[in-house]
UniProtKB/TrEMBL annotation:
Pfam families: PadR, Vir_act_alpha_C. InterPro entries: Tscrpt_reg_PadR_C (IPR018309), Tscrpt_reg_PadR_N (IPR005149), WH-like_DNA-bd_sf (IPR036388), WH_DNA-bd_sf (IPR036390). Keywords: Coiled coil. The keyword Ligase does not apply. PANTHER family: NEGATIVE TRANSCRIPTION REGULATOR PADR, TRANSCRIPTIONAL REGULATOR YQJI. Residues 99-177 form the Transcription regulator PadR C-terminal domain. This is PadR family transcriptional regulator. The lineage of its organism: Bacteria, Bacillati, Bacillota, Clostridia, Lachnospirales. Residues 12-86 form the Transcription regulator PadR N-terminal domain. It comes from Lacrimispora algidixylanolytica.
Amino acid sequence: MKENTGKSKYVMLGMLALTPQTGYTIKKWLENEYSHFWQESYGQIYPTLKKLVEEGLAVSSHNSEHGNGRGQIIYTITEPGKKELSDWLSKAPEIEKFRYEILLKISFGDNTTKEVLLGHLDEFMKRNEKLLEDMNGYMEEMEGEKGQNFDCTYSKLTALCGIHLYSAMKAWAIEAKGIISAKGEKNHETKNT
């Protein structure tokens, strides 16, 4: 389960401000568009939506035309919900937390072999290449949305950030591999005591 950052309320309000949605469409949107920069616990989606309705920030309605006959619950942001979202958007964002385990492992590189580090860097490059493909795919999808009553400008900006970030991480990994490869085998082996 992902850490609850206390921002679930604003994630849901922001998504509902785009268009009325079901919990399922929110989940899919989080998986596809937001996962490169924001992790939200899927277990938080429905309780958060329920709380938004209780607080009058959203309303729910049943739509029996879709789904498997049970119908779907559609959530729509209310005017107080829009104000709540606007108030949150006007506040300065918290300082980003940067956590990459690979950087810890590289920083302790004197305690292992260069082959181990090069293997970690190869995997890191592959992950970043895949993420770059995903971001470029999202950009192409959003280009296809032009003229369909949906402005993708801000979604494109988040994907563009991902493109820059993952390109930089891939470039760093290539450079780090070169530096590690040029460095002689470590001078000491870890001793078993």
